[in-house]
Structure formats: structure tokens, C-alpha cells
Hints:
There is one protein chain. With 328 residues, the chain is mainly α. It has one domain: ABC transporter involved in vitamin B12 uptake, BtuC, CATH 1.10.3470. 77% of the residues lie in helices and 1% in strands. The chain has 15 helices and 2 strands. The chain has a two-stranded antiparallel ribbon with strand order 1-2.
Amino acid sequence: MKTEPRNAKTLFRSDAMQRIMAFSALIVLFIGFSIASPYFRTFDNFVGILLATAVNGVLALGATFVIITAGIDLSVGTVMTFSAVLTGVFITNWGLPIPVGILGGILAGSLAGLINGVLISRMKIPPFIATLGMLYATKGLSLVISELKPIYFNDTPMFREMAMGSVLGKIIPGLEVPNAVFILFGAAFIAHIILSRTILGRYTFALGSNEEATRLSGVNVASWKTAVYTLAGMFSGIGGVLMASRLNSAQPALGAGYELDAIAAVVIGGTSLSGGEGSILGTIIGAFIISTLTNGLRILSVPQEWQMVVTGAIVILAVFLDILRRRR
């Protein structure tokens, strides 16, 4: 007789249940907005939601690793911009081949993440302060390097094709889904493999569950934590390249606020701010919830300030549900 309540309680506490709840919320949003506006359920609008999720989703992938370790990274948005600007410098200003420029942009993001990791793990600076400092540093460097002006990729049309072209549309005429969407899913698959099948993934969960016990087990906590922040920086670099390709320009003033959307996607997707728990699938669902919510409210002509209020309320609700789940 006691087996049923215990199994139900275990199911409620599991991260699988959290993902089911998030996915259910996403379905409810789709149904609700589809009923409220016929334009919402058009193919073009669905493609718009997918495209809007691409950059934020990639940023959220990196933030997932950091938050599972019970850390935080406030710099993912401006590191994204920094990577985009350097990609523009490499390709447009220096005339380097597009693959080299893309690699340079991703490495720039990885370097910023590495510095974050060293500041946090070696110099013992709290993650909030270290990444806040990186936020301002990369924001300023983006403006300095670009000389306050956007960098355009007009001479390299193939760069824009990377995100906005459609390989699927060439194979199946009429299904013009931008490549950026497939890059997001590819990055999510790689992130899932890293988190669930590698030593880095196992230590990511261990650091968030009990860092001191992990240290006493003989694990080099500082090195692995640095690796986690470097990985987050790499995903920010990928996001920067995607954003530059999507806009066909590197906008040095862009980036502020993206970190909030990324963190919100991670939290809504079921990753606990207390650390030790989370999944890539949940993060992707969370990113789609935010994009769908923003898109639907915009279609219904809800003012932008109220869109932010609704998003904030959903984040608070997600954290509250996580607290309740842990108590039970």
C-alpha cells in the first residue's frame, strides 16, 4: 500500500517530471495562442519562433552547465556580442576566410569563458561578481574594437547563408527552415552528449551536488570548474557567430539582456539554481517557451513592458515550483 505514494513522490521530484511540466506548458501556450490568433499558427510564424529561439537557445546551453554547478554567468550576452564583433573584424576588416573568422569568434568566446573560470575557481571571486565584471569588460571591448560602428558582411554573402540559408528548402521545396535552427539542434545534441556521456558532464553534476565532497574525492575542482565556464564561453561564441550571420552585421551595442533570457530558459526548463540538477532537453523546451510567449504576446499586441512582466512572473513561478519539489 505504501508503494504508490512513494513512487508518485519520486516521480514528482524527478527532473523528468520537471521536463514534462515544461513541455506541457509549451503545448498549452501553442494551443492558447493558436486559438487567440489565426496568424500564430501559420508556417511562417512557426519558422519565426524557431529562428528567434536559435541564438537564445545556444546561449542557454552554455548557461545550463554553469547553473548545474550552482554558479551563474551574467556575461553570456555581451560575450556573444564580443564574439560577433571579432568575427566581423576577422572576416570583413582583415579579409580572412570565413571558416577562420568563425573559428576566431568562437575562440574569443571560449577565452572569455576561460577567464571567468580562472577568476572564479583560482582567485575565488564569486561567480556573480566575476561574470558581472566580464559583462562590462566585453561590452566595452566590443565598442572599442568596432569603433562604435556596426561591422557589415556585405562583401561575404556566404556568411549570411550560414544562418539564414536553408539546406532543407533546397531538398524539400517549400520547407524554408533557416540553417540556424539546425545549428541550434546540433549544438544541443553535442551539449547533451557532453553532459550525459563524458567525465566533464559527470563532474558538472558532482560540483553542483556537493563541491566539497567532490574535492575530498580527489577531483581537481578548480580545473573542472574552469572547463565548465570555458564551455559556456564557447557556446556564447557560437551564439555570437549565429547572431552576426542572422543580422549580416556585428552590432557592438547588442547583447545586454540576452543573459537574462538565457538564464530564464534554463530555469524554466527545470535546471535548479541550487545546482546538481538539470538537462539539455529541459533547457531547449525553456527556450521555446520564452520565444513562443514573446511571439504570441506580440501578435496579440500586448505592450513590450507587459511582455517582460509576464516573463518575469513565469520565471518566479518556475523557481517556486523547483523549491516546492525539493522540499517534498
